[in-house]
Amino acid sequence: MSCAVFAELEAHRPSGRGQKWSRYRRTTYGLTLASHIGYASVGLLQGVTKIKIWVAITDKNWFESVSRLHADEVNFWQPSGSREFRALRPGEPFLFKLHSPDNFIVGGGHFVRYSALPASLAWDAFGAKNGVGSLAELNLRVRRYRREDASLDPVIGCNVLAEPFFLSRPSWIPCPDDWARNIVQGKVYDTAATNGRNLWDAILVSFTGSMVREAAPEGLNDERRFGKEYLTRSRLGQGAFRVMVTDAYARRCAVTGEKTLPVLEAAHIKPYALQGPNRVNNGILLRSDLHKLFDLGYLTVTPELKLEVSPRLKEEWENGREYYSYQGQPLVVQPSDPANRPATEYLSWHNENRFRV
Asked: How far is the C-alpha of 36 from the C-alpha of 48, rounded, in Å?
């Protein structure tokens, strides 16, 4: 949660322990919090879609490392990439529980996507948001769990989480009553059940210090905050963008079909620095040399999803025969979901503002 959000929240918080909350101030504070966390409290709203909550076990070092970053996203990685995480829809809460003896829930985030990635790519995408200080440290931690694996670049399971939040020590939440000591990875809770509903209400109480009993505005309806809709409405980070674009293109270059993952890069069609969003339909997976030429304007993709090569490539560099062989050719790899294919508005922007005619 950003400093601006905390400032907005503090503007509505009572100034003293004994000060009573007015109905307006209590409502404003709670709804401001709920909207920025991304959820309406399931125990406070009536007639909304129920959600699932995943409580994952993590070590204190990972938690302390990422909580210091004030990051917009984190990678909650697991040492093996062989078991896909399917417990949540995009946008549903993924909570952090520390190992015993610290049996508390200490934070969480919005689940975005699971992807099995080489550790090197996870480091390139998330850096310190992996909860470690370097790729070497990430590999070292992975090998603590996979001592028999001598691979140079082990594949790990990446649970990409957006807009993480971290509770201060006095606000840590005790585990639900039905939490078993033999749980190794985590447990799913459903807000249709009492324990799940109480758990999510406890998260909001930990932030607000007081429950908000009034109904939320229509814009906080849960149904529009989960699944594919979450991915198009929410602020996703650069790491999430890279992972989602990579998977949307089945890990193959859109132009050449190249499958060597270390040389594939997720390119923004309209740059993020120029208000281009971190959405899959503003991205295209390209081999690294094609990505460079695309960013420089020597290549573009038309709204008909065909590659165009600038004549200036040959004029300025007296070369480019390989690239001209793709002139006018349709993209050989496109996302299977039409909603993830390059959007016309971003392609038109690139044609008009980047392409070197």
From this structure: 18
Residues 188 and 17: beta-carbon distance below 8 Å: no
Q: Are strands 52-58 and 104-118 parallel, antiparallel or unpaired?
A: unpaired
Among 228, 203, 225, residue whose Cα is nearest residue 33? 203
Q: What is the pLDDT of residues 253-263, one digit of tens each?
A: 999 999 999 99
Cβ-Cβ contacts under 8 Å for 73 (sequence gap 6 or more):
109, 112, 126, 129, 160, 161, 162, 163, 164, 236, 237, 238, 239, 240
Round to whole Å and give the CA distance between 345 and 350: 9
> SS3 breakdown of the chain: % helix, strand, coil, rounded to 5?
40, 20, 40
| The token pair that represents 183 in the structure block | 């749980």
Partners of residue 155 on adjacent β-strands = 118
Strands (E), 99-145: 104-118
pTM of the model: 0.81
Q: Is 289 helix (H, G, I), strand (E, B) or coil?
A: helix
Q: What are phi and psi of 4, to 5 degrees?
A: -65, -40
Question: Contacts by 128-131 with C-beta closer than 8 Å and gap 24+?
Answer: 128/65, 128/66, 128/69, 129/66, 129/69, 129/71, 129/73, 129/74, 129/75, 129/237, 129/239, 130/74, 130/75, 130/77, 131/61, 131/62, 131/63, 131/65, 131/66, 131/74, 131/75, 131/77
State pLDDT tens for residues 116-169. 999 999 999 999 999 999 999 999 999 888 876 677 899 999 999 999 989 888
Amino acid present at 209: G
DSSP 133: S
- Joined tokens for residue 20: 């009573």
Q: Got the DSSP string for 32-57? A: HHHHHHT---TTT-SS----EEEEEE
CB contact burial 148-162 (16+ within 10 A = b; e otherwise): eeeeebbbbbbbbbb
DSSP string, 227-250: THHHHHHS---HHHHHHHHHHHTT
Q: How far apart are CA 155 and CA 82, in angstroms?
A: 8
